[in-house]
Amino acid sequence: MLNRLAYRMHQSLERHFPEQRLFLKSDTETRFIRLRSTTQVIALVGGTLALAWTIVATALIMMDSIGAGSAREQSARQQALYEQRLNALSSDRDLRADEAARAQERFNVALAQVSEMQERLLASEDRRRELETGIDAIQNTLRRTIKERDEARLEADRVTVALNEQSGGATEMGRARDALATLEILTGALGLTAEERDAMLSEANAAREETRTIAEEKRSLELRNDAIFSKLEEAVTVSVEPLDKMFREAGMSPDDLLDTVRKGYSGQGGPLTPISFSTSGSGPTPEELRANAILGGLDRMNLYRIAAFKLPFAMPVKGSFRWTSGFGYRKDPKGYGTRMHEGTDMAGAYGTAIHATGDGVVTHAGWDNGYGRLVKIRHDFGIETRYAHLSQIRVEVGQRVSRGDRIGDMGNSGRSTGTHLHYEVRLGGAAVNPMTFIKAAKNVF
To answer: In angstroms, rounded to a whole number, what is the distance separating the alpha carbons of residues 394 and 405?
Structure first.
């Protein structure tokens, strides 16, 4: 039964795959290789399997390449959007700073105008008081002169009557003429005094009108100053609040930070001095208080700017990269259980530029066991950053670096399983999550 079944299978294979002979001829003899039906079937099946495996492997490779390309394109788009956001925020920050500077200039001009108008108002007030004093003196003199004139007339009448009674007509006429001459002199003096009084009254009225005009101008200027103050206060609030939030999210006290910056500041353009226009020893005016509050906000913003460049708020990698491992406990990539990962990893192309994330001093630039080629930078306020697994180091110990300076190249040195940067931030010697600083600065820089 089995022999018959085998025979039938052989006959079927012979119909589809007849026996073939491959002749090999040389100079002396001729040989041939017989290809049985079974051999041809086995070769066909093997070739088919090889072709199918090649197609499947090619499809897998193409799918992997397409997926990797999409991931790279997505990462590039995210990086472009991030840089676009950074540029927009930087432009907005510069615009706010320019607006604040222009507003401060307008504020200084307005304050100068207010001071000038106050001086003019005080001068006009002093002049008005002098005119009032002069008018009072003239009126008193006029009253005294009129009284003396009336008394002189009475005395003249009395003397005329007495002379008429005692002496002859000629003598009486001479004395009468003398009395009339005296009265004319007194009348002229009184007329001049009245004219002077009228002139002084006109000057006093003009001074009152000028005082009223100056007061109206002062009120108008106060309204404009109030509008300028409001704009300045709004601009300072909008500019300072994101900076306060950034430092708080980074785990730092803004007040302590600013006190430290203020104590160590020695350059130009630093803390702003409060202003005061009072010279009489009285308390500050509401305008002075508002101006000093705005100057305090500008001072705080300026100190924030100084502190921000001293702290690691920038990105260490500006080229294309992907996040591979974050801060915290994870499985050891070498298979040694669970370990604490004290930084964050950024994978990119071999040789990608690595930049300092803040101003500082290089304290280590060399090999360090598991870190491989390592750069340590000491920043102000007890903060240190570490850049590990580098392929090349471009700084030296003791060198001062600024934010954005290139300090090395991405590599795979030390205890590493692939090309990447291991980035650490340490506060007071203890490792903290670098993403705290990166996320805190994303809406400011």
So the answer is: 10
DSSP secondary structure of 149-185? HHHHHHHHHHHHHHHHHHS-HHHHHHHHHHHHHHHHH
Residues in the chain: 445
258 and 369 assigned to the same domain: no
Token pair of 73 as six digits: 């394109």
Measuring CA to CA, which residue among 309, 298, 290, 234 is closest to residue 272? 298
The answer, as to whether pTM is greater than 0.90, is: no
362 touches 398 (CB < 8 A): yes
Other CB atoms within a 10 A radius of the CB of residue 307 amount to 22
Let me know: does 338 contact 379? Beta carbons within 8 Å. no
Give the integer Cα–Cα distance in Å for 342 and 344.
Answer: 7
Q: Please count the other Cβ atoms lying within 10 Å of the Cβ belonging to residue 322.
A: 15
- 166-216 pLDDT tens trace: 655 445 566 666 666 766 776 776 777 777 777 777 777 777 787 788 878
With H, G, I as helix, E, B as strand and everything else as coil, classify residue 423: strand
The whole domain housing 46 covers: 2-69
Residue 346 CB neighbours (<10 A): 22
Answer whether 254's CB lies under 8 Å from 247's CB: yes
Residue entry with tokens 């006093």: 204
Q: Please tell me whether residues 197 and 159 are part of one structural domain.
A: yes
Q: Of 48, 69, 90, which residue constitutes the final position of a domain? A: 69
Q: Whole-angstrom Cα distance, residue 80 to residue 86?
A: 10
Nearest-angstrom CA–CA distance, 91 and 85: 10
In 3-state terms, what secondary structure has residue 41? helix
Mind giving me the DSSP string for 242-269? HHHHHHHHTT--HHHHHHHHHHH--SSS
In this prediction, residue 249 has a pLDDT band, given cuts at 50, 70 and 90, of low
Domain count, the chain: 3
